[in-house]
Amino acid sequence: MSNKPIAMSKLKTLIRLYVETASKSKIARVTGLSRNTVKGYLSKIESLSLTREELLNVKDQDLYTLLQEHSPQPASKRMSDMHQFFRYMEKELAKPGVTRRLMWQEYKETYSDAYQLSHFNSHYVRWRGTEKPSFKVDHKAGDKLYIDYAGKKLSYLDEETGEVLEAEVFVSILGSSQLIYVEASTSQKKEDLIGSVQSAFRFYGGVPQAIVPDNLKGAVKKSHRYEPTINDVFQDFADHYQMVVLPARAYKPKDKALVEGAVKIIYREIYAHLRNRPLTNLSELNKAIEPLLEKLNDRRLTTGKLSRRQFFDQVERAYLKPLPTHSYEIKETTWVTVMKTGHVLLHKDKHYYSVPYKHIGSKVKLVWSKQEVRVFVNFQCIACHKRSKSAYNYTTEKHHLASTHKFITDWSPDYFRNWARDIHPHVEQLIIEILEKKKYPEQAYRSCIGVLSLAKKVGAVRLAAACSKALEYDACNYKTVADILQRGLDFTHETPDQELPLHPNIRGHHYYK
Questions:
Q1: Strand partners for 182
Q2: In angstroms, rounded to a whole number, what is the distance separating the alpha carbons of residues 54 and 14?
Q3: Is 411 helix (H, G, I), strand (E, B) or coil?
Q4: Nearest-angstrom CA–CA distance, 9 and 7
Q5: Burial of 368 by CB count in 10 Å (0-12 exposed, 13-18 middle, 19+ buried)?
Q6: Which of 5, 174, 368, 387 is most buried (CB neighbours < 10 A)?
Q7: Buried (b) or exposed (e) across 481-504, using 16+ Cβ within 10 A?
Q8: CA 467 to CA 419: how far, in whole Å?
C-alpha cells in the first residue's frame, strides 16, 4: 500500500466496489490505483471485523482514522537512539556556534550504528515536524533582544488632578528563549527608552550581543535599508553595554516578528486584566504589570513542555554578557574655551572645573552626566570631576594648575578679606564691596587679586589711601584704584568746606529758589 494517502472519494469508491464484491482488478481499473495499493486497503478493511453494511455507514473522519493513518510501527533501537539524541540536540542547537553537522559528529561518536549525515538531517526535519518542540532553533542563545512599543497605551488616573493620563508600553523579547519584559513609561523619548532597556537588562540579568529596535526616534536618527543612522546618545548607550544596534528595516515586519507577536500576547495576558483596575500613578501601573508578566513567562507553551522562563534558565541565561558595574547615564556635550585661570565653565550649572594648564586657550569638548563632568581634547579625556551644581564656585585639581596659579585653589571670599585686612581696613572695605557687586566670582576674584597686588608696587599706605578715595567716589574696582595711584590723587587732600570762588557766570543758590 502506498505511503501517500489516497483521496477520500477514491477510498469511498473502493469500499463501494468491495461491498459489491467487485474483483481487485476491477477496483484498480475504476479507481486508477495500483493492484498492490488496492490489495493493501482491502487487507486493512478485512482486519476491521466490520460487515459490508456497517462499513458503508462509517463517517469520513472515522474512515480516515481507520484506513488512511498508518499503524504505528515499533521503532527500532537504532531509530529510538537517534530520536533520544534529537531531544538533547534541540537545546544544544540554541547555543552559539553549534551546528547540525557538529551534532551529527557527536552523535556518530556516541552510537556505533549511527546514520550518515544526509539521513540524519532528513530524520531530524521529520522529527521536528512530528514532535513539535517548544522552540524553533531560529535564534542563538544570548544573541538578540527585540524591542518595541505597543501600539495601544495603558492609562492611569492622576490622583492630584483627576486627569486620565496615558502611558507608553515598552516590550522586549529575547530571540531564543522568547522571555518577555514589559514596562510602562511616560514617553518614547530617548531618556525613557534607554531607562526601559536598562530595566530589561536587569530583568534578564545580562546583556545580549545585539539589540533590534524598530525605527524609534529615540534610537534611530535616520532609517535606511543598508546603513541606518543610529541616534548618538543611543549609540553611546550601546557602546557602554558593548552591544550592537541592528534596527529593523522599515516596512519589513518579519524583521521584528517576535516582538510583534509579543505585543499581541500582552494585549491578551496583561491589558485585558488591567482594563478595570483603578491605578493612580505610573509606579502603581508597573507594579500591577509585574505579577501578570511573571505568570505569562511561567506558563508552559502549548507547543512544548517548557515555559519561557524554564528555557531561559536552562539555556539562554548562561550566554548573556554580565551587566557592567555602573548603569549608563545620559550625557550632554558642548564646546568651550579653557580660560586663562585653567578652568572651563559649565554654563548649565554656572560652575567652574579645572583642566591641565597646558590647554589654556584651547577649544575643548565638555561632556557631563548626572554624576560627573569630563573634558576631552582630540577624543582624549584630560580631566574628570564629580559634578557640582554650586553656582559661581570652583572645582579644582591642584596638579592641573601651573606653579604660578596653584594658589587659586585657596580662592574664596574669606581668603581675600583676610588678605585685605592684613593691609588696612580701607582695603578690606573695598574688597568687600567688590565681592558683593560682581555677579561672577571669577570677575570678583580677578579684581581682588589686582587691587591687593598693588601693595607690592606702591606699599600698604598708598594703597589704603587710594582705596579710601575709591570708596568716597563709590567706584569700587581695580581700574579706579590703579588710576588714583597713577595720577597721585592719593596724596591730595580736598577741603570739603572750601567755598566756591565768585564769578559772574555762577548764578548762586538764590537763582534756584
A1: 171
A2: 15
A3: coil
A4: 5
A5: buried
A6: 174
A7: bbebbeeeebeeeeeeeeeeeeee
A8: 14
- Residues 412-464 have pLDDT tens digits of 788 888 889 989 998 999 988 888 876 556 667 778 888 988 888 888 889 99
Give the tens place of pLDDT for each residue, 243-294.
888 877 665 656 667 888 888 888 888 888 887 788 888 888 999 899 999 9
Rounded distance, CA 20 to CA 27, Å? 10
Q: How many helical (H) and strand (E) elements, i.e. helices and strands, does the chain have?
A: 19, 15
Q: Which three cell numbers stand for residue 447?
A: 579684581
Please give the helix or strand (H or E) that residue 154 lies within, else none: strand 154-157
Q: What is the rounded radius of gyration, in angstroms, for the C-alpha atoms of the chain? A: 43
Match 493492484 to its residue by C-alpha cell: 35
Nearest to 142 by CA among 298, 320, 294: 320
Cell 529596535, residue located: 213
Strands 210-213 and 244-245 turn out to be parallel
The grid cell for 340 is 586663562
Cα–Cα distance for residue pair 38/46, rounded to 1 Å: 12
Partnered with residue 364 across adjacent β-strands are 336
The neighbour count for residue 75, using CB atoms within 10 Å, is 11
Beta strand 144-149 pairing with 210-213:
parallel
The set of cell numbers assigned to 311 is 528555557
Most distant CA atoms of the chain, gap in Å? 158
Q: Note whether 350 and 320 are within 8 A (CB).
A: no
> Cα separations (Å) of 270 from 25, 204, 277, 290, 302?
64, 19, 11, 9, 18
DSSP-assigned letters across all residues of 106-120: HHHHH-TTPPPHHHH
Instruction: Please tell me the distance from the alpha carbon of residue 364 to that of residue 334, in angstroms, as a whole number.
Output: 9
Tell how strand 164-174 and strand 144-149 pair up: antiparallel
